Amino acid sequence: MPKHKLTDIFVIKAAFERLTNYNKVTPSGETILTPFNFSGKTRWNIGKNLRICADALELWKKSVVEPIKAELGIKINADEKDPKFSELNSRAIAQAEEIVEDYVLLKVPFAELTDDKNPVSADVLSILDKFELIEQLP
Q: What is the bridge-based pairing of β-strands 108-109 and 134-135?
């Protein structure tokens, strides 16, 4: 079971979020939000991975970010230019770098990711490959 830094989970979650839908341009120039043509199993794996990532990030938010916000006296509508906001970000990200956990993430089949019906971007494929989340590589 691979270990990931929590900062990796931010990246992995973003990649899986981009595997839910894509913008398709019609011949008339209209842009339509279109689901990828994945099997039910693959959609399940993507959804499960999104839940795992979201749960990990929510726990980090509650156990790390919120206590730092309280300590610094940052309100919900804080100005991002406020030095306290910058300190919050620095400290929270530093702690996220230190958190290394076993996350049981499910792989996505190579054949579905590279099918011409599914215009998955190269950067998403690169992220999934980096974190060994592609099943059945050639």
A: parallel
Instruction: Please report where in the chains the tokens 């996350």 appear, as a residue.
Output: 103
Task: With CA atoms as reference, report the closest residue to 19 among 112, 85, 102.
Answer: 112
> How does DSSP classify residue 1?
-
Residue 4 parent element (H or E):
strand 3-5
* Distance from the first to the final alpha carbon of the chain: 22
Altogether, the residues listed in the chain come to a count of: 138
- DSSP symbols for 68-97: HHHHHT--TT--TTSHHHHHHHHHHHHHHH
- pTM score above 0.70: yes
Task: Give the integer Cα–Cα distance in Å for 8 and 91.
Answer: 17
Per residue in 71-82, pLDDT tens?
Answer: 988 876 666 677
Residue-wise pLDDT tens digits, 6-41: 999 999 999 999 999 999 999 999 999 999 999 999
Q: How many CA atoms lie within 13 A of 73 on its CB side?
A: 2
Structure token digits, residue 2 = 């691979």
On whether the CB atoms of residues 72 and 88 are closer than 8 A, the answer is: yes
